[in-house]
Amino acid sequence: MTGREPTAGSTRGAPVNCPRCGRLAPTLVRGQCPQCLREEHDQLRRVQAFLVEHGPATAEEIAAQVGVPVERVLRWMREGRLVATAEPMRCRRCGRPVRMGVLCAVCRVELAAAIRQLEDALRSEPPPLPRPKRRRVRREPFPNRFDLW
Ligand SMILES: [Zn+2]
Ligand SMILES: [Zn+2]
Fold this sequence. Notes:
Blueprint: E1 16-17, E2 24-25, H1 34-54, H2 59-67, H3 70-79, E3 89-90, E4 97-98, H4 105-124
Antiparallel strand pairs: 1-2, 3-4
Helix pairs in contact: 1-2, 2-3
Bound molecules: zinc ion (2 copies).
One zinc ion is lined by residues 18, 20-21, 23, 32-33, 35-36.
């Protein structure tokens, strides 16, 4: 989501008190002053970054981990700015439900072992040397023979 420019208030008049922070603002955008709006935007970005890194979390977990009020997280969910996933994420490899990340614990272990095996194999076996290119000798069809008497 790109930063949307806060739409300038259409009512140009007396400054208003922001209901959130009480500051005097020339206009209110979405019911709050531009400063609160920016703050909220920053928080949302942090929450999104958290979710990308840790996978799905409950509103309470998000609030605790990111340091954002729970009500705010819930409101973002209502507004569709955060997607609430009732379903746990599925492991990309085997489809088992996972709470965090993209792979389940089993697959993570298996994958790590596979990678280690691969690394060992690469270490023990010197990479094959590039084979010298053999010029393919094209055998001409046997020439017609001319016999001289
Ligand atoms: Zn404010
Ligand atoms: Zn898995």
